[in-house]
Amino acid sequence: MTAASTTATTMLQATQSDVLQEIQSNFLLNSSIWVNIALAGVVILLFVAMGRDIESPRAKLIWVATMLVPLVSISSYAGLASGLTVGFLQMPPGHALAGQEVLSPWGRYLTWTFSTPMILLALGLLADTDIASLFTAITMDIGMCVTGLAAALITSSHLLRWVFYGISCAFFVAVLYVLLVQWPADAEAAGTSEIFGTLKILTVVLWLGYPILWALGSEGVALLSVGVTSWGYSGLDILAKYVFAFLLLRWVAANEGAVSGSGMSIGSGGAAPADD
Ligand code: RET
Q1: Which residues carry this modification: N6-(retinylidene)lysine?
Q2: Reported pTM
């Protein structure tokens, strides 16, 4: 065994306590995690209060999907804070940090698999879209997150990290297509186009920030440190999750009549029944 591989093995066998120590000694990284835990806690309480009078099934479904966003988030950040979903990865030859053990908060990519479908479910219900379109957006989104996780975790080949990044981007394009082309027309027909338009722009602009950060951060070309990258994601999360969800819930609570269908009209091709 060479000296380099011995060091690598040592770090790769780091215990959860070692990882925790490393997180806690990195102020930027640690604060980016704890600020989000605190915010998610406040947001959960706020959303419970905001949704307490919502009665119609479709509006309720939007509310539950929206509530799940900070609920998944607080669990995700608690996983990162404890070191459970953070590990050391030895970057492959060709990577800017080749041979070094880089702290990877991979749990983020894993938990996006659960939070981002909730954002899309809420948006799809708001637009009163059809089930095929909703299924497409959610499955493409899950594909994006899982292949993004693969891109972050691959240590055998630099090229394959970027191949998976490319696959993830292709899934992302499908999500963007649904959001930008299909759902605006559904929202127009459902009478929710104003709020949908605002949330669509917020979502598309902020979501584009994630692959850019990935590419610039330590997973990609390593122009940004682990702490700065983590604050980047945390900042995007605050806007793409809490601000997004707040705007959506505030609108739903004030305009329940506009989303008062059964919540099961999904599959009807977006057309609401006449007596809806
Ligand atoms: C990755 C890297 C690979 C390429 C692409 C990505 C996109 C990620 C996105 C994440 C959105 C996350 C949100 C989380 C809220 O809980 C995986 C970074 C395209 C769009 C909104």
Answers
A1: 241
A2: 0.91
Q: What is the DSSP string of 89-142?
A: EEPPTTSTTTTSEEEE-THHHHHHHHHHHHHHHHHHHHHT--HHHHHHHHHHHH
Tokens of 21: 């120590």
Determine if ligand 1 sits within 6 Å of the CB of residue 242: no
Question: Between 226-237 and 193-216, two packed helices, what is the crossing angle to 10 degrees?
Answer: 170
- Would you place residue 12 in the very low, low, confident or very high pLDDT band (cuts 50, 70, 90)? low
Confidence of residue 67 (pLDDT cuts 50, 70, 90): very high
Q: Which atom of ligand 1 is nearest to the CA of 72?
A: 16
H or E segment at 87? strand 87-90
Give me the DSSP letters along 68-84: HHHHHHHHHHHHHHHTT
Q: Is residue 233 lining ligand 1, measured as CB closer than 6 Å?
A: no
**83: region left, alpha or beta (phi > 0 left; psi from -120 to 50 alpha):** left
The C-alpha atoms of residue 117 and residue 173 are separated, in whole angstroms, by 15
Structure tokens at 159: 């090229």
Atom number of ligand 1 nearest to Cα 69? 16
Q: Is the pLDDT of residue 187 over 80?
A: yes
CATH H superfamily, domain 14-257: Rhodopsin 7-helix transmembrane proteins (1.20.1070.10)
Q: Pocket of ligand 1, candidates 37, 210, 234: which has the most ligand atoms within 8 Å of its Cβ, to mutate? A: 210
Residue 1 pLDDT > 80: no
User: Which pLDDT does position 269 carry in this prediction?
Assistant: 46
